[in-house]
Amino acid sequence: MQIRPILATLKHHKAGTLLIALQIALTLAIVCNALFIIHQRLAHLSQPTGLDESHLLVIQNQWANKPTKGDISSLLADDLATLRKVPGVANAYATDGYPLSSGGITYGIGHSPDKLNFVSNTAIYFADENALPTLGLKLVAGRNFRSDEIGEIGGRDKIAPQVLIITSELARRLFPGESAVGKMAYVSDKPSIIIGVVERMQTPYVDSAMAQWSDCSTLMPFHQLVTPTNYVVRAQPGQLDDVAKRVRAALYAANRLRVISPEDGVKTFAQVRAQAYKSDRGMAILMASISVILLAITAAGIVGLTSFWVGQRRKQIGVRRALGATRHDILSYFLTENLLIGVGGVLLGGVLALGLNLWLMKQFEMARLAPGYVLAGVVTLLLLGQCAVLAPALRASNVPPVEATRSV
Amino acid sequence: MFNYYLQLGLHSLKRNPALTALMVMAIAFGVSASMVTYSVFRAVSGDPIPEKSSQLFVPLIDSWGPQQNDHGEPPGALNYVDAMALMRAHQSSRMTLIYSLMLSALPHDANSVPSQATGYAVTGDFFPMFDVPFLYGSAWSNADDDSRAADVVISDSFNQRMFGGANSVGREITLSGHDYRVVGITGHWNPSPRFYAVWGESGFGDPPDFFLLLNRALDLKIDNTGRNSCRGHLTFRSWDEWLQSNCIWLMPWVELNTSADVARYRQFIEGYAADQQRAGRYGWAPNVRLDDVPQWLEKQHVIPEESRISLVVALCFLVICLVNTIGLLLAKFMRRAGEIGVRRALGATRHEIYSQYLVEAGSVGLAGGIVGLLLTAAGMSGVGLLFEPEIARLAHLDISLVALTVAVAVVATVVAAVYPAWRAAQVQPAWQLKSN
Fold it and tell me: Do both A130 and A242 map to the same domain?
């Protein structure tokens, strides 16, 4: 295939050539970055919490009057007893927060009481001996809390736990290459002994700002006697929906002076997860639909412009056919022409894609675009261009040689 | 002449329905994607209190020092000690301190269960500072602040829930076991974003149910349910020790009416911080900020990142659709070179050809705008997919957005047609006539 005559022809159609190339370039730039955003968001929202989510539901409970610390202690015990008696409930515990709840307590944890030299941030979860079995957390070393270790604290009390359970990621950061069990760590001015390590437990936050320590959590053996508080309930297999319907009525039957919001007072963990990652999923859907529409519009644009060129050049095609060019020659002429424009477009588009990525990195919290995405985009657009040009090119190859003799 | 061009244009559009449909759809998609994302952006980036946003300021004092503050910035709220010192100094015409509360409201009929009520503890200055409208009653006075009265202002919707919408001024209400006297009922008021409490909140939630008198709330030790941030070891063991700690949780606002007032107040807080350094309370030089509403919203990153990214992507999308339209219009116009040649030969000027094709493009843009309007309306229901419900409900298709959609479609298409129409006007009549 001769490329020089094609280039010569393209020089006569500067505007059209440039427009198609520009459109391919811009489409490539957007689609690469959109695909990259989709991938990042999907990776984000599929991060495991470490919990046995399919059996869990959470209840936010607020006491109606002004119970004292002592009142709450017995109210809490009563509520947990009530919940355990609900048919289908396997276990339950009370806590300040849970993974993906988007609010909670954060501390620095380290090797000395000096707070300026902490090793890592950590989410703090108040827990009792039922927390691990309820959440389905996997203990990889050490032991669970004993019921005699569980203390009680009020809203503004000093928090200085004797023992801690931490996640394996936090253990790795605190004691790289060593077992953490039995070692001391500081969350207050007094040391705490690490008695257990769980495989994984995500923090309450999904923000990118806190992503660096999203697996660094600490369980503290306390019942926090404040209102509102959360109950995490584990249902027997297959009974989650029934339990979700029963718990509110059971709690109100036991004590009416409380608020469990009718809208979101009782949530299955699936609902918690959907809420936490709503914008990630939405972003992925938006980027996917924009990419699809964009590719469709670009393909349609190529069909439109090439059809016009074919129409314009019917006579020249006729002349070439009369001079001995085969149908195949005509077809491959248009395919090659499109490929040349496409290559020009993707070269420019690759640069634009990286430029857009740099700009997005500067403006937003975005990572560097992996070259694989540009490559995938280049292949997609070149293939798309060839498919789009096929119909007009076939029409061109069907122009009969007799066209050369017409209307002269 | 315009009508004639329009007829010619419509006639020509009918001749290539596929090409026309393609252009119309490209413009419609591009415009509607931009409009849907813009409607969200407009909702979250607006000035919540335009008439006063340059007179309201957040005074911040670095109480954590260079080793523990956030990249040199003072923390976004005040600790109790500093907040109360600024209150007592009375250096601004008005001042309020705000913290979040989540309480339970006892129902008036015995059959219902208690319900949740959210609100803020504020001072009496809060209401005139932020132009809070009142349906009944009024704000409490500064004297009430000093006498620590059990006063509460409730919102119209909370009044509806608790008192059936009647004028409930003077009636009692029980919140989390304490009784308060209703002194005022606000009209519907929920500035968006809720600039006065965006520290630690999204700023787009449901409007608060009540405003409690700050001193009373503190007396009753009603705990803050909003953000509370501390540094170093938490050594407090009680409410009173917590108040004296370095934990920041009170959101301060001052009203300063002239630039001289602003300068004076800045000097005052710098002086205060210097005094604290001299007194040995802070071991670092004064580091203070005095941000007005726009600066404050910017600093608190109130506009969700999703909103800005989706707007940028949608605008890029529109640009590509327009590049596409330029190409298609070029093809469409140049295909009629023969026709243009005849018109030119019969006496039409270049200028007339030019206007004729711009009018034709304008009609394509109009069609694109109308289809785009339908897509925008459909897209509005998809906003809830991307954003939190409290943000999604802010985006709506109003008259101004309808006008903007159609205008953007028409203007963008006409701009896209400038080059193709110019090419059409350059057609040489003699050359065209000869080859036919």
Answer: yes
